[in-house]
UniProtKB/TrEMBL annotation:
It comes from Paenactinomyces guangxiensis. It comes from the Bacteria. Required for the transposition of the insertion element. GO terms for biological process: DNA transposition. The keyword Glycoprotein does not apply. Belongs to the transposase mutator family. The keyword DNA-binding applies. It holds the Pfam family Transposase_mut. InterPro entries: Transposase_mutator. Keywords: DNA recombination, DNA-binding, Transposable element, Transposition. This is Mutator family transposase. GO terms for molecular function: DNA binding; transposase activity.
Amino acid sequence: MAQYKINLDEETLHGLFFQGEGVARLLEQVLNQVLQAQVTEQLQADPYERTEERQGYRNGSYPRKITTRVGTITLHIPRLRDGRFSTEMFLRYQRSEQALVLALMEMVVNGVSTRKVTQITEELCGTEFSKSTVSDLCKRLDPIVQAWNNRNLHDQKYPFLLVDAFYLKVREQGRVRSRCVMIATGINEEGYREILGLMMGDSESQSSWTEFFSWLKSRRLHGVDLVVSDHHKGLVNAVKTQFQGCTWQRCQTHFMRNLKDATPKVLQSELYARVRAILDASDEKTARVLLDQVLEDFEKKAPRAVQLLEEAYYDVTAVLTLPMRYRKRLRTTNGVERLNEEIRRRERVIRIFPNRDSVIRLVGAVLMEMDEKWSTGHRYFDMTEYWEWHEQQEKSSKTTEKVHQLA
C-alpha cells in the first residue's frame, strides 16, 4: 500500500480548530497532495526530474469540484501530455455519498420536501443543486449500482442463503406508499459473505418473493443447501417452490418472540429458558428429549405456546443437522437485520423517497460498499468441515437410495 507524506500550512491548521470550514480545507489540501503523489508514481518522476524510468510528462491540471459531507472542495486533477491520469481514490467514497445526496436533492427538485429536508440538504452538501446536476449524477451512479445488482453469480456456489425484507415510504402517483425491499445475503463455497441483490415489491406476498428468487436464479444462483428467514407465509411458500430439496431454517430470534407472545406472562422466563436449551442442544437426539419434557410440563399451563413449539420444532432446529461451527450464525437472520440497520440509518434522514429509482440508488450503493468489505475481508466461515460433511451426506443418501431400489 502506498504511503504519502502530507504537508499542512499554518492557515489550514488554524482553520481546522477555529473556523467552520476548516475540515473541508484540510480535506482539500490532503487530497490534492495525494493526487500529486499519485501522478508522480504513475510517471515515475518528480516535476522537472530527468530519469530513464520516466513514463511521460505533466501538462498542468484542471479543477474539479467534489461535494462531500463537510462541504464542497476543489481538486486539481493533473493532466498528462501523452496520456490520461487515472485514479480510483474517490470512487468507493462517493457511491453512498452521491446516493444520499441524490435522494435528498430529488425531494427538493420535485417539490415534495419539507423545510427541514431543505436545510439538511444545504447543510449536508454545502451548496444548491439544479435539475441538470441531479441528472448528471444519476447517469454516473445508476449504471454502477445496476451492474452490481445484476451481476452473474455462476462463479460460486452459495450453500447458505439468508433473506429478509423491510419497508420504506415511497412517493408514487402523488401519494406516499409503503413498499417492500427484499435483500438476499449468501455465503459462498469459500466461506465469504456476499450481498447477492435487492428488489422492490409492493408487499411480502408469495408472488413478490417468487419473483425475487426467480430473478436470483436467472443470474445463475446455484448450490443452495440451507435458506434462513423469518416465518412470513408468502416467503416460506416461495422458498418451498423455488428451492425444492433445500432445508429451511426458521429464524430462532423471531420464533422466540412469537413464543413469548403465546405464553402466559408468569411462565415466560421459565419457558424461554427451557426452549433455549432445546435450540442450543448438541444434537438432534438431545433436543428431542428436551422437547418431550417441555411438552409434558407445559401442555396444560401454556397450551398455545406448546402447540406453537410442537408445530415449529423441526423448522427452528434445522441447523442441528449441520456441524457445530456453522449453527450459531445460521440459526437467525440477525446478520441481515444488522445490515438493515445500516440502511435505516440513512433512510431516517430521507423519510420519504421521491421515487423507486432513488430507493435502488441509495440502498444499492450502501449494500455495494458493504459487499466489497465482506468479500475482501475475513472469511465468515471455514468451509472445509462443511464440504466434508456434505460429501458424507451425499454418499449416505446414495446408499439409502440403492437399498430402496434393491428392495
